[in-house]
């Protein structure tokens, strides 16, 4: 879309700016650019015909952002196709059809992510989708207009008439039409790039000093635009150098044909003239006069009657109906908005789908089914017994089972208490001390093993007063002392 490489050619005059600097002004907006970007998020739904409003929500988010910064948006929508752009539109439609076909094949193959990318390439914004956005603009009482043909020419006309103070778009064609102030690369925070026509003389990539709008327009057409394919192997810089050298398009084409470096068709000059006249005299809608006018009125002695490529004439009543969005600019019939979630069209569609589903269910239920076993038959062997019917001793302890586990009471089932002073863990770290270290006590001695396994009641009885128990491991002196203290 637009002239390839034109914005990078003017990179030296790109001025980063913010929307808040344009508070109190009215900016024209290429509405189809916003709709196309919003449609990327719902490309699959649009391709399948499912109702969605994501593209409207995206555009309205941008509208509210402009209002937040004090800027009044003036949205301009594209209209009918220009005869000069028939070849370009035909190739684009063919590419969209191929992308949609490949996307459906990928979807059937189960490659949903790849199919979504192809669906995005097949997006085509329609007047029905634009009508949904127009309805939202009417609720906010914001200005808008549907151009009879190209929105670019309509935006430049509104700027020349003083109805807008600048143009917000991603299309570089606006500079070829004669846009004075272009705001592009707008992000979600209100930051954008300003390209002002008065700064053309400061371009460092090429010298535009002394160049007129006509020279700039012809350079862009030679490199390739929507109305004429560019010459092979000729970019913007090559076209600039040749226009600087040969001054006029006729001399430039003759020298190219003489040198033979580039291939040019025989009718190239006539097509070049048509493209240039389309940029100059394209038909637009005048909101003040309520009828179609030319972007630039032809000079005296020239008539637009012999220029069908700039767009056909439309009666004022029909042109006004198209401009307000009531009539489809392509078919010239009353426009029917695209189905939206929750709308009457969507309700009818859902009702028909539910009716079809109910019919399918009823037809399936009437089919003969094979006999099946009742679900209760699987649980007959495991019926639940009420608590009142159960034996009251069913949960009592079985003495025979306890005797088997304890070897008739010889091996008590006890769990020793944790004794950190007896049982050392391997994870514990040794404590460093300045005192001499003692010999580690054996952890496999009979005494420690007995302490770990013996019931704590036995240990208490051993230490009780009057007990005659003598430890076999105690020294002789300690045993005598223990025996003497045990005498009454």
TrEMBL record:
The keyword RNA-binding does not apply. Its main location: nucleus. One of its GO terms (molecular function) is 5'-3' DNA exonuclease activity. GO terms for cellular component: nucleus. InterPro entries: 5-3_exonuclease_C_sf, EXO1_H3TH, HhH2, PIN-like_dom_sf, PIN-like_EXO1, XPG-I_dom, XPG/Rad2, XPG_CS. Residues 455-470 have a biased composition (Polar residues). Residues 1-99 form the XPG N-terminal domain. Residues 432-447 have a biased composition (Low complexity). Gene3D superfamilies: 5' to 3' exonuclease, C-terminal subdomain, 5'-nuclease. Residues 138-208 form the XPG-I domain. Its cofactor is Mg(2+). GO terms for biological process: DNA repair. It holds the Pfam family XPG_N. Belongs to the XPG/RAD2 endonuclease family. EXO1 subfamily. This is Exodeoxyribonuclease 1. It comes from Colletotrichum liriopes.
